[in-house]
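User: For my dataset I need records formatted as: sequence, then structure tokens, nothing else. Please produce one.
Assistant:
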Amino acid sequence: MFKKTVFALLSAAIALSVHAQEDELSLQLNGFVDSYHALQVEHPHKIMSSRTRLRLEMRANYGEASLFSSVNLAYNSLIKDQSGAFLREAYFDYAGKYLEVKAGRQIITWGVADGLRLTDLISPMDYTEFMANDYDDIRVPVNAINLKYPGESFSAELVFVPVPEYFVMPSGEDNPWTMPLPANTSMDLSGTPEKRLKNSEVGGRLRFFLENLDFSLTALRTFNKSPVTIASFNPETKSAVIKGIYEPMNVVGGDVSIPAGELVIRGEVAAYFGEPIALKNSRDYWLRKTFNALLGIDWYAGDNWTFMFQYMHKVVMDYREVLGTEQNTSMLTARISKELLNNTLKLSVYGMYDVDNVGFYIRPAADYLLSDQITVSLGSDILGGRRGTFKTYKKNTQIWVKGKYFF
């Protein structure tokens, strides 16, 4: 079935290419093949991941309009439901002088943060294998209508998502990244809001482009895409059930980017109104207003060195001791890279530090460009700490290798 699907898609692409030439359209067909394999560092040294993927991207252009589609054909030897053919993006795109329209399944990114989410809340994340994927690969596309006025000094954007998407959390006995649960406990994250118009997402963004300053203002009606979990007891099965809670919340915020020589200073703020927060007893939750702020500094130091640092801080307003979180929480991130051997070898390290839980995630990597089309990579995912999610996944510290061929 897998081979038949690949053959059918390639045949359709060739047929479209011939048709496009006859009608003076333009058709682009490109993509990549990659293969990723990871091994647990600690005993018993299990295979943490083994997957191979073919990505096909097709775009048909006619004047100011285009159609784009992206399909993943994947084989995952560990997580069986991750094998098969999956539509990633498929949308109509119109780029006029005064109006741009993008309608269909697409990835929407807002804000200036690197790997952290403040105003970038529309496209959720796929944590099936936690963070053991490239950041761009774990974004979940949404079905949306995106209208934009593309001015020279400012732009205005309006987004409507009829049916929101939510975080995909790791689950299943065959997945080494599934969150461990106590005995006689099950997880139920199926309680997402009904697919009704009242539960749709709508947001707007104004962006301003000045000589030495870019900034934007955003407003969004959305949900907490990552579920807040509370525990209950099922008397029939005499077991505990951890349920995921999703609540509507309003978000207002903005971001700024200031170039200053070799530096770029980035900032982002967001206020969440009605964010659900679980209580310490894990049996209920309260809605609270929270304030989130981020400051980032990027230094392009020359000689192919790049340094990127971020600090994010969150404050829970109207705080009470019964809440299952601290009033103030912080996160630090760093990304350092250096290119060598005529830019064919890139050494990098990315790290996250959970200040309050003293938890950390570190990803050192080496990417070697064999040719313009082939890249091989070697790296590791190191997790640990005193408390929190990074501590929970400490046993999943792994080394990995990846190959990628572009066409």
